[in-house]
Design goal:
single chain, 309 residues, alpha/beta, Rossmann fold, two-stranded antiparallel ribbon, 12 helices, 9% strand, hydrolase activity, acting on ester bonds, SGNH/GDSL hydrolase family protein, SGNH_hydro_sf
């Protein structure tokens, strides 16, 4: 019996040591990534120092050209957009950035699927797992799933879903970016079926996402960071009512919400889109110029006048 107990203890000790070693190894690979998404995310969380940051989903990532923004606004800029993600991930990134410095402005491109509607919130956690030990990040995990506090005790669990990405970004990074921005080349060659993703009738609002949006607003206010919410163009939608909960938050806290979601300059113009949800590089350049005009018009009243433009 004693031998069995001793073997079990030895096995657990070995398991612990192997897991700890894997955790150290993976974290070293994350920190030493040559490029790609691993290096980009690490830069966002640990190294950004730019005046203007762009937050949001893939629509932020592909729609806002930092070089155009820098040239016109005379502010350094970095695009922090992330494919398939929204406020749950981005609030964690924001808290890490806030610990280091306070940018002058954050432009947040809102997508209802990722920022307002209910869905699988577990899907937003992988991009935060490397940074679980950072202040205010662990509580985000607990708010999504209380069991995460136990899972995160396993070091290798923090990296297992991103293992191949981490390895590729250390060997031969495939994805390049321009100050975080990833332009999409090409043009949409099909006519998409109209899907009224702007209507809320079939979509339930997620109180957790609203909670973190409100936290972001309050934290920016307390840190004197100018926050502007935007909705970038969609190819075929004519209904922007999905943004109503956010608009109500913006009105309550006097934060600008600038709506280009149904902007006829872009709607139904294939030459500006690569698919129904994403602008191509030409469309992104044209849209960024429109954003510059918006920011010049609202910059000095950010935080004092909230409205939908």
């Amino acid at each position: 019996m004693r031998q069995l107990v001793a073997k079990i203890i030895l096995f657990l000790v070995i398991l612990f040591l192997v897991d700890t070693a894997l955790g150290i190894c993976f974290q070293t690979l994350v920190d030493s990534a040559k490029g790609g998404e691993t290096r980009r995310v690490n830069y966002i969380c640990k190294q950004t120092s730019e005046d203007l940051l762009i937050f949001g989903s893939s629509r932020a990532l592909h729609h806002y050209d930092p070089l155009l923004l820098e040239d016109s606004l005379q502010m350094s800029c970095y695009n922090c957009g992330k494919d398939g993600n929204g406020i749950i991930l981005l609030y964690g990134w924001f808290k890490m950035i806030q610990q280091r410095y306070h940018p002058q402005m954050i432009v947040y491109d809102v997508m209802p699927n990722f920022d307002l509607w209910k869905g699988d919130n577990m899907a937003y956690l992988p991009g935060l797992r490397y940074y679980y030990g950072e202040p205010a990040v662990d509580s985000i995990f607990w708010s999504v799933d209380k069991n995460e506090r136990f899972k995160m005790m396993v070091q290798s669990y923090r990296f297992n879903s991103q293992f191949l990405q981490i390895m590729m970004d250390n060997i031969k990074p495939l994805r390049k970016n321009i100050n975080g921005y990833v332009p999409l080349e090409g043009q949409m060659t099909y006519e998409p079926v109209l899907q009224e993703t702007g209507t809320t009738s079939a979509c339930e609002i997620d109180p957790l996402k609203l909670y973190y949006l409100e936290r972001l607003i309050k934290d920016c206010r307390d840190s004197r960071i100018s926050l502007v919410f935007m909705a970038s163009p969609q190819y075929k939608n004519t209904d922007a009512s999905a943004f109503k909960p956010l608009m109500e938050l913006c009105q309550r806290y006097h934060v600008p919400f600038i709506n280009h979601y149904t902007d006829t300059t872009f709607n139904n113009k294939r030459e500006y889109f690569i698919d129904s949800a994403h602008l191509n590089s030409e469309g992104a350049a044209k849209y960024t110029l429109a954003v510059i005009k918006d920011l010049k018009r609202t910059y000095f009243c950010v935080g004092t006048e909230g409205s939908s433009i």
